[in-house]
Amino acid sequence: MSGYRAIARVYDRLNADVDYEKWADDVERVFDRFLPSRPELVLDLACGTGRMTYPLAARGYDMIGVDISADMLMRARANQTDEKILWLLQDMRSFELYGTVGAVVCCLDAVNCLTGAGDLERCFATVHNYLDPDGLFLFDVNSPYKFENVFSDNAYVLEDDGIYCGWQNYYDKEKKLCDFYLSVFEREEDGSYSRYDETQTERCYSESQLRKALEKTGFEFLGIYGGSDMSEVRADSERLYVAARAKKTTL
């Protein structure tokens, strides 16, 4: 897992179409459906630039944001005012908290970035360890449909306000791995451009793989949906949303 230096510069622009306020509303509806009361402390795992952390903090939750990228966290912290947010520079596979939390959210396909052998179960086991008994784990992944039909071996370009980003995808259908080769050009004050190159990789996970890993690490699988509003999965759903509950033996 890399430092995300290049993509941090364009991350919010790449996801400019994401309605985080609506997504946060949907997260609360999932809380209401599966929890007896809303949690006080929530972890935003692989929080990136904090685009989900802040809407949840504005709703009154005490938030923790964990990310492996110092560049992402620097951009997240730059927006902080009076919100109760603790930012931690840690790996989502082996993070450490000061105690347990009532819910963990992990947004925008960060789980797909768990590409190594055993990474998925390591992450899920760590999440389980830091959840309250019956606490919720909510995450999303890019769907197999998206890997095969949207990512595939396609190329894309983003150009906007002094930023140019081009990337080429290569999807290995047998290994279920998609490599993204990115080049970012950013205009400097003197009119020149700085170039940043980066390679990202995501793994395609099936519903059965996710469910098996969750159940192996102590979770109750609650459901998989085609939208953050718990809508039905369709054949062409590009993103899958998963809800799971941490089952723990209490003494």
What's the quick description here?
The chain is built from 8 helices and 11 strands. Helix content is 26%, strand content 35%.
Alpha carbon gap, first and last residue? 38 Å
> What's the name of the CATH homologous superfamily of the largest domain?
Vaccinia Virus protein VP39
CATH class of the largest domain: Alpha Beta
Please describe the biggest sheet, giving its number of strands, its sense, and whether it closes into a barrel: 7 strands, mixed
CATH fold-level assignment of the largest domain:
Rossmann fold
The total strand number stands at 11
Structural class of the secondary elements?
alpha/beta
Radius of gyration: 18 Å
Q: Give the spatial strand order of the biggest sheet.
A: 3-2-1-4-5-11-10
Spans with pLDDT under 50 lasting ≥5 residues? none
Architecture of the largest domain, CATH level 2?
3-Layer(aba) Sandwich
What is the mean predicted local confidence, pLDDT?
A: 92
Fraction in beta strands: 25-35%
- List the domain count as a whole number: 2
